[in-house]
Task: structure prediction
Amino acid sequence: MPEGEEAPVYHSESNSNAGKWILIALAIIFVAGSTYLLFEQRGKLDRISQDQAASQKQVADLTKRVQSAEADAETLAQQLGMTKKELASRAEELQRQQRASVARLAEEQKKELNAVAGEVGNVKGMQAIYDKKRQFKAGLEKVDSITMSDPLIAGDWITAVLTIDAIAKGGGRVNLNEVCVYQVRDGKIALEQFFYGAG
Result:
C-alpha cells in the first residue's frame, strides 16, 4: 500500500445483523399473534354458529307448536260446528265473562271481609294496629284465657290461630277463634288481619 494512503477500514456487519434479527423476531411475534387471533376468532365463529343452529331449532320447534295449536283449534272448531273466527269470538266472550266474574267475586269478598271484620279486623300501619288493640281491650271486661298456636311462616307472611275466652263489657262470655295474619316488612309488622267467628 502506498504511503500516505489510509488503509481501508472494514466494518463488521454486526449492527446490521442485529437489526435483521430484531426484524425476524418481530415478524415471528406478529405471525404468532395473528395465528392466535385467527384461532380465537374461529372459536368464536364456531360458538356463534352453534348458537345460531340452536336458535333455528327453537324457531322450528315453536313453528311446529304454533301449527299444531292452529290445527287443534281448527279441529275443535269443526267438532263444535263453528268456524275458527266464531270459536275465537266465543273464547274471547268467555274470557271477558270470566274476568267480570272474578272482579265481582273479589268485590263481594271485600264487602264480606269489611262486614265481618269491621274497622278492627283489617288495618295497615303500626299506629292503626295499636289503636285497634286499645279498642279491642276497651271492649272487654275480663279475659279468662288467651292461647296462640305455633306460627306458620311463608316469606314475609306469618299466621297463627288465636283463641280468646273473655267477658265483654255489657255482655256475656265471648269465645273467639281467630286466624291471625301478619305481614312483615323491614323486620316490623306492616299489616295485620284477623279472620274470626264468635262462639
Summary: The beta strands are 122-124, 140-148, 152-154, 157-168, 173-185, 188-198. The domain at 120-198 is CATH 3.10.450.50 (Nuclear Transport Factor 2; Chain: A,). The first helix runs from residue 14 to 80. The mean pLDDT is 79.
